[in-house]
Amino acid sequence: MDDQDVLNIWIPYRLQGIQTLWWAYNQLHDLPQPRELQVLVDGKQILGGNASAVLNPMVEAGFIHARCLLEFLGLGVKKGKLITLDNRRADDMAIEHFNVDGVALEKVTPDAVLSAYTGPRDRGEHALVAIFELANKGLAHFTRTFPDGYNSVDLEIACRGIPVLVQNHLYTKLKKQAPEAPKPA
After folding, report:
1. d(Cα 158, Cα 181) in Å, to the nearest integer?
2. pLDDT per position as a tens digit, 122-158
3. For a tag on the chain, would you pick the N or C end, based on fewer CB atoms within 10 A?
4. For residue 133, what are the CA distances in angstroms to 98, 122, 123?
5. Counting Cβ atoms within 10 Å, is residue 174 exposed (0-12), middle (13-18) or buried (19+)?
6. Is residue 185 situated within a structural domain?
7. Does 179 fall in a domain?
């Protein structure tokens, strides 16, 4: 995968995944029960059942996309706090692979993230930590200590904030606009 593919295809794809996460999350909460679903292709039903069968995977995939973009920017979590990642794997694609006038972009620091957030810093950090903890402990493996204390406000802050972080710390520095990801229906 080359740098241009990352900028023009893969990051927009992941940003769309975050938009889809927020849309599907809201559908799960807004649609009346029993939320029966029919998926038609050329007028033929190919899937039926509860809407959760489609919406839940959209939410779950969105968490993974959100985590991926935060890690791409150089962010991680340790002991419930946002951190700058110490190291990368040799094959990781990261913000440091991009440069302006021969100078590599730097990993984004928690201070840079939180100073740009217009709300309380602890709330912004809590929202981004939620992405990591829910993706890691909620999706990637079974755990006895499922993350607690997160809500829809945290999810909204993260879903709105991550695209801004990507724009400000990557595309703006490259003097580009992030390609527009199609919005879910």
Report:
1. 17
2. 999 999 999 999 998 878 777 766 677 888 999 999 9
3. C
4. 28, 16, 15
5. middle
6. no
7. no
Buried b or exposed e, range 58-77, using 16+ CB within 10 angstroms = bbbbbbbbbbbbbbbbbbbb
Is pTM, for the whole model, over 0.85? yes
pLDDT of residue 144: 67
The domain tally of the chain equals 1
Look at the alpha carbons of 122, 63, 183, 25 in this order and tell me if their dihedral is positive or negative: negative
Residue pair 117/161 in contact by the 8 Å Cβ criterion:
yes
* Bridge partners, residue 99, by sequence: 104
The residue behind tokens 């992030």 is: 178
Q: Which residues contact 77 (CB under 8 A, 6 or more apart)?
A: 83, 128, 129, 132, 133
Q: Is there a contact between 71 and 85 (Cβ–Cβ < 8 Å)?
A: yes
Mean pLDDT of 9-32: 94
The sign of the dihedral angle between the CA atoms of 129, 18, 63, 28 is positive
What is the tens place of the pLDDT at every residue in 78-123? Answer: 999 999 999 899 899 999 999 999 999 999 999 999 998 999 999 9
Residue 3, Cβ neighbours under 10 Å: how many?
Answer: 12
**Residue 40 DSSP SS3:** strand
Confirm whether 180 is domain-assigned. no
